[in-house]
Amino acid sequence: MCTAILACALATPAGAQQMRILVQSSPLAGFQYYGGKILWDEMREGDRLALVREPDNRHDPFAVRVEWRGAKLGYLPRSDNRDVAEEMDRGTPIAGRIGRLTTDRNPWKRLRVDVYVGL
């Protein structure tokens, strides 16, 4: 699961710092089919993303949905989701952030999802 090892502190709502480790950076699958195009001008690099397990997804039992402020943006790619899904199923605290936004013609290159594990 570890494609990058980078420790960083992310602010929690109470203002305290929590240590998290960047474990994966992935493109966003399905950008062109969900809310990304509509919300593009509002999103910023570093924004929090909700990662939501969909174990009953009929297309992929390891599906992890990506949401921004409650709006579905797409999914972690099937090639990158199994380890994240298994850790989520174990109860491991997993968080997401927008790692990169770019105006590329290829929708797979427009948004990079950074996945963190809490310590």
UniProtKB/TrEMBL annotation:
Superkingdom of origin:
Bacteria
| InterPro entries hit by this protein | HIRAN
Residues of the HIRAN domain? 21-119
Pfam families documented for this protein: HIRAN (PF08797)
Q: Keywords, A to Z?
A: Hydrolase, Metal-binding
Would you tell me the protein name for this molecule?
HIRAN domain-containing protein
Native source species: Zoogloea oryzae
